[in-house]
Amino acid sequence: MALTLELASRSLLHHSSSLTIFAPTDSAFSRSGQPPLPLLQYHLLPHAFSFESLSSLPSGAKISTMLPGRFLTVTNDETRISLNNVTVDRPPLYDDGSLIIFGIQKFFNPFFESSNASGKRIVQPNLECRDSSIQSNPVEALAAALRNRGWSVMASFLDLQVLGFHKQPALTIFAPTDDSLMNRVGNFSDWMSIFRRHVVPCKLWWSDLANFPGGTEIKTYLKGFSINVNRSSGVLTLNDMSVIFPDMFYSEGIVVHGIGGILEIQNETEGEVEESSSMRNGGSPESGFEVNDEDKAVAHYNFSVFRS
Asked: Which portions of the sequence form the region Disordered (predicted)?
């Protein structure tokens, strides 16, 4: 965690004059790999919380984090102080009054939901320390719409990806159901692969998909992974997965379709699908997407497909 903070300090620590950091152990990093930047923000509080302050909070209370709009849930009981059911070690690793660092044995799960949290108050101390430049953006509107329709896990994926959607001219997202994603959210090293294979660099309405002939392949943002359009008894499927909520959400540059499950990588292992993090030919480092020359030409109703 010390090395991670050194590398990411300019991005993470400029928001606030006081800070609380929850630092997972080296073994937690070894088990899970290097987390994305937004997940690190989820482990920072924009205020110095003492152990006494944490212990005084009622179970179910929510504490603002440096990840905009995301909270940690207090799960204290008689035997321990915990957040998201992760025990907070005592005493702090470091405490100078304005910076407090607590050790924790594993990463907080951003998908954690407490069954006792409904109706509890939200703790938002020292909000003036938050970055006032953060404004509403298309990702927030999209994530909110997905949550309202029952696709909360995919909405959380959107929150946790540094996508820079405002820089993408057109996107289609195929959103798996919560049930299909819940058993896959425990390992965040898989998140980028899962997310990229469900995002297409062009805007495709349901009517567009319905007009594709069987055998059409649509490129995704996961290099080497394509979505195959097939038809069986007149029913359109994507990699044998049904579209259960067409045109669920749409805006000027984005359309989302709900699908029945995850688009799995078939006939090849995860390692065979290259996920290079380097950006080529104008790809935005904020987006996390690779953009090649062919992708640059992609626009609404102008996309590259391969027909068998």
From this structure: 270-291
- Please report which helix (H) or strand (E) contains residue 41, including its range: helix 37-41
Q: Is 308 exposed, middle or buried (0-12, 13-18, 19+ CB in 10 A)?
A: exposed
> Could you give the CA distance from residue 273 to residue 197 in angstroms, rounded to a whole number?
10
* 26: β partners: none
pTM of the entire predicted model: 0.59
66-118 tens-digit pLDDT: 887 788 999 998 899 999 999 999 999 999 888 899 999 999 988 887 544 44
**Angle, nearest 10°, between helix axes 152-160 and 138-148?**
160
**Both tokens of residue 170?**
């057109």
Q: What percent of the residues of the chain are helix, what percent strand, and what percent coil, each to the nearest 5?
A: 25, 25, 50
3-state DSSP call for residue 165? helix
The dihedrals phi and psi of 138, each to the nearest 5 degrees, come to -60, -30
Residue 307: CB atoms within 10 A of its CB come to 10
